Amino acid sequence: MRASRPHLSRILLSLAVFVIAIFSVNTIALALDTSTQGGIVLPQLDDHEEDHGASTGQAEHAQERKAPGVLDFFVTGKFLTIFALMIIGLVLLLVRKINLWVRIVMMLAAFVIFGLEFVFPLHPSPMCATTKMFMFKVTQGQFFAIFVASFLAMIVPSIIWRKPFCGWVCPLGAMQELINKIPHKYKWKQFNFTAFNSVRMMLLAMFFLTFFFVMWQIQMLGENIEADTTIPMWKAFMAYNIYEPINMFEILHWQFDTLIVILFIVLIISSLIIYRPFCYLICPIGAISWLLEKIAPGRVRYDADKCTDCGKCEEKSPCPTIYKLRDPKTKSLPDCTSCGECVDACSDDALKFGFKK
């Protein structure tokens, strides 16, 4: 049996430490942002150029800026904070210090830091990380480092342990989870994951197929009518993607029009009933990281020999995953966001998070 739960004062102290740690890392990261000018470096002038300081060429050279690369973005405040939240989540999982209130505090931290645009002006969006990489390749002729860095920051850690970005950083995921934690009796926990996931995977496949197919078709149309397909209007048409009308991350810009209001209402109502509905039904990073769950060694592990079938893990876990994890007949396991609430609920050590069986 596990040791008794810590006193309330210890829990509150732990929560305070978590919050202070998060914002301390954030403050340091912002200081680094300021000192490095967001990763954009001014070139150094050599001695020959200094000797000709009055020349026009030198003035133009001094104004040049080096475009930040992927590694430059990784050391900015936003990405350091992303990595810090992931690591804090991993540590909490490994030392089994997660409960409902710890989870709420961490989700609030992720939502406030990344979702309200008070700290960072642009939230980390799985939609943009996936779609904008290709959009700007079409419209600007290159992959922009910020979107490549965002995509890698979301995907690479998911190879190590299950969904660290989705479960501990994503502001829209945090908002959905916080809404879902509002107590009421109409929650639908064991929804048909196969149906949801089929839609999500179909959208991902259609994105790649339609994006490139539409791009080629519009380019052929332009050539047939002898139009200049390099002008912005033609490039905008070629860059259209299937996720555009259902991108709920647009909500986090907090600039509402009719479509955003409708999406917001739908998200709130569905999140009250289903755990992270957008993540299970639409999100492209959710789909890709679900595939990576099959190989990620860091995961919640179930020991059937220690399980007493008390049902506490299924009762307290917000997601549909633990029910399927305990079922030996399960072939397709729903997404696990590594929230750790099922592990906290188990007093028999039948559930644990780890990298080894």
Characterise this structure.
The structure is a single chain. The protein has 357 residues and is mainly alpha-helical. Helix content is 59%, strand content 2%. It contains 18 helices and two strands. A two-stranded antiparallel sheet has the order 1-2. Helix 6 packs across helix 10 (171-180). It is globular, with a radius of gyration of 23 Å. The model is unreliable at 1-9, 11-16, 25-56 and 59-63 (pLDDT under 50).
Estimated helix fraction: 55-70%
Structural class: mainly alpha
Q: What's the gyration radius in Å?
A: 23 Å
- What overall geometry do the principal axes of the alpha carbons give? globular
Average pLDDT works out at: 81
- The number of helical runs is 18
Please report the total strand number as a whole number. 2
List keywords for this structure.
mainly alpha, two-stranded antiparallel ribbon, disordered N terminus, globular
